[in-house]
Amino acid sequence: MASKFFTENESDYLKSQRLARIATVGQNRENGSVQPDVVPVGFDFDGEYFYVGGMNLAKSTKFKNVQDNSKVAIIIDDLKTIDPWDPRGVRIYGTADIVARQGGYMDRTGHSNNQYIRIIPYKKWSWGVEGPVFVEGKFNVKKSQKDMTK
């Protein structure tokens, strides 16, 4: 069952994928500069939240950045076909926190770790998931944002 935020097709697509890229921003502890960081990651999606783990997660840049700045972006995408060119994906803006979670994808890696970055989405864009990515020569993007005042 899809959440109210994600359509059923979006939810099914997200649950079928295993790799994503997460972008975080934190302050460089050595010189105080701000540097975005983007890395490929494995993830779980439970229909509402995204969970990103990793080997030595607590030592990773993404983990440290989330502790400094909870705003993150994550993108899950692939090519349905290359001929014809048919990309599809979902880009999400969210807030992140650190949670303990049993039974996540890290248990299947041989590097079990119950600590995960949980991403709570509040804005999304999807393409090629609900329908054709190109319609009449234009990029067909579905956008949605949660009402954060509730």
Written overview of the protein:
- The chain is mostly beta strands.
- The chain has a single domain (8-145), classed as Electron Transport, Fmn-binding Protein, Chain A (Pnp Oxidase, Chain A, Roll), CATH 2.30.110.10.
- The chain contains two helices and nine strands, in the order αβββαββββββ.
- It has helices at residues 8-16, 61-68, and strands at residues 19-27, 34-45, 50-52, 71-82, 85-100, 115-127, 134-135, 138-139, 141-145.
- The strands form two sheets. Strands 1-2-3-6-5-4 form a six-stranded antiparallel β-barrel.
- A hairpin with a 2-residue loop joins strand 4 (71-82) and strand 5 (85-100).
- The longest helix has 9 residues, at 8-16.
- The two termini are 23 Å apart.
- The mean pLDDT is 89.
State the main characteristics.
150 residues; mainly beta; Pnp Oxidase, Chain A; 6-stranded antiparallel β-barrel; two-stranded antiparallel sheet; 2 helices; 49% strand
